[in-house]
Write a structure and sequence with these properties.
Elements: H1 2-20, H2 25-38, H3 65-84, H4 89-101, E1 111-113, H5 114-123, H6 134-140, E2 148-150, H7 151-172, E3 181-183, H8 184-194, H9 209-224, E4 231-233, H10 234-239, H11 242-247, H12 256-261, H13 266-279, H14 289-292, H15 302-311, H16 321-332, H17 337-347, H18 357-373, H19 381-392, H20 402-407, H21 411-419, H22 421-428, H23 430-441
Helix pairs in contact: 8-9, 9-13, 9-16, 16-17, 21-22
């Protein structure tokens, strides 16, 4: 009896020791990893991650204020570092002096060969050395018999590069997302803060600033954002000529002719806004269809104006200034693909992404009615439509796509004869007008 009791006590003591002792760590680890991965604590990584570097880092969430602030400070430090690497005016002047001192014979040509080019490279500041590459020299070389390039062309190349880098940094300061594009509000802030630095805009009243900014920004977005995404790549802004036109207003002695032809000048902005106010006869700040019909010489057809108000953004059937600017830019630049895209959408009354015989007949009939009302001869509709198809030569018979209209290089003429009575009359009488012009020039 005592022996059996003793054995039972020994057995319980061993079990108690096992329960208090270390458990199987391998099994516990496995169970922990399963639950950890299942509950989102980590992801199984492919072995290739060990050799392929990470090339995309998502933006920090908006609610993570610390990461957002860290990103802003990092971008600011990066742009400051890039700005410090730009050449100052003194460095540019020193560069020009060194080029002048190292001209290659004959020196009266003010040119430099590759050997002297490298000598200048050794003398310039470290920030200048990147511009003295063999690739740059070969780009500027124009088959000179002495193997030289013009120092003026090289200096202008450096100046252009510095300006592009400076502009890129300036635009990037307004890139809130840091993804290389500007939204409409970002570009508005950029231009608004630039106004005081442009002498040609000194005469603008501050009450007109908002209208000027709207006028300037619409040109950027009309031509650089034809799909209406609401943002423009900074790279596209730098590649187009619009920024050059805007910065041209820094010249104090800008001729009147260049001011009138520059969309961003004060004269141009006041002209466009003045036209808008003149059309707004009821002074409610918006344009109705009848008010817009007075645009220009008042020869736009009512059918075309109906389509404009069907396709364009309106407020209770009336057009605001921003929509009016798109309308003006399209009509004043009919040869450009962006304007043709805008007008093609209006002309495509069937919504088939193509102009058919029905579409052409629909718009031509309105032109013919206006001509008849003014006592003008009516042209045979069938012959006219055939003439349009002969001008375009579409890829698919009987259907003119936007691509066809742009490719034929006569899209502006076709649009004019479809929407404007005056444009149609001018086209029909083109030979007589040319003959009269030749007589007057004799």
């Amino acid at each position: 009896m005592s022996t059996w009791v003793e054995k039972l006590r020994q057995f319980n003591a061993v079990k108690a020791q096992e329960s208090n002792g270390p458990k199987d760590s391998t099994e516990e680890r496995k169970m922990f990893e399963e639950y950890y991965l299942e509950w989102g604590g980590g992801r199984k990584r492919d072995p290739s991650y060990a050799s392929i570097p990470c090339f995309y880092t998502p933006l920090p969430p908006e609610q993570d204020l610390i990461l957002q602030k860290l990103r802003e400070e990092s971008r600011a430090a990066f742009l400051t570092r890039k700005s410090a690497a730009l050449l100052e005016n003194e460095e540019l002047q020193k560069l020009l002096d060194l080029l002048e001192d190292n001209l290659s014979p004959p020196v009266e040509d003010r040119m430099i060969n590759f050997e002297d080019y490298l000598k200048v490279k050794d003398q310039v500041s470290p920030k200048c050395k990147d511009y003295f590459s063999a690739i740059t020299f070969s780009k500027l070389y124009k088959k000179d018999p002495h193997g030289r390039i013009a120092i003026v062309e090289f200096f202008h190349y450096v100046m252009r590069k510095v300006w592009l880098q400076q502009s890129r940094i300036g635009l990037s300061l307004y890139d809130i997302s840091g993804l290389g594009y500007l939204r409409e509000a970002d570009l508005e802030n950029y231009i608004l803060e630039m106004i005081p630095t442009l002498p040609q805009l000194d005469g603008l009243e501050k009450s007109f600033y908002s209208f000027y900014v709207c006028t300037a920004v619409r040109k950027f977005f009309f031509f650089l954002d034809p799909l209406r995404t609401g943002k423009i790549k900074i790279q596209d802004i730098l590649c187009c000529s619009f920024l050059d036109e805007l910065l041209e207003l820094r010249e104090e002695g800008l001729p009147r002719e260049r001011q009138d032809s520059n969309w961003f000048s004060a004269a141009s902005a006041l002209r466009v806004y003045g036209q808008y106010l003149t059309l707004d006869t009821d002074h409610n700040g918006m344009l109705s269809k009848s008010e817009l019909g007075r645009y220009g010489s008042g020869t736009l057809t009512s059918v075309f104006l109906d389509r404009v108000f069907q396709e364009c953004l309106t407020y209770e059937g009336e057009m605001d200034y921003k929509t009016y600017l798109d309308f003006i830019l399209a009509l004043e630049n009919r040869k450009t693909p962006q304007a043709l895209q805008y007008l093609f959408k209006i002309l495509d009354c069937e919504g088939e992404a193509a102009l058919t015989v029905f579409s052409l007949n629909y718009f031509f009939r309105a032109v013919q009615e206006e001509l008849s009302r003014h006592g003008q001869d009516v042209v045979d509709m069938k012959d006219l439509i055939n003439e349009v198809f002969d001008m375009v030569k579409p890829d698919r018979s009987g259907r003119i796509t936007l691509k066809d209209l742009i490719k034929c290089c006569q899209g502006d003429i076709i649009v004019s004869i479809l929407i404007d009575v005056n444009g149609f009359w001018t086209y029909e009488n083109r030979e007589a007008l040319v003959a009269a012009e030749n007589i007057n020039n004799r």
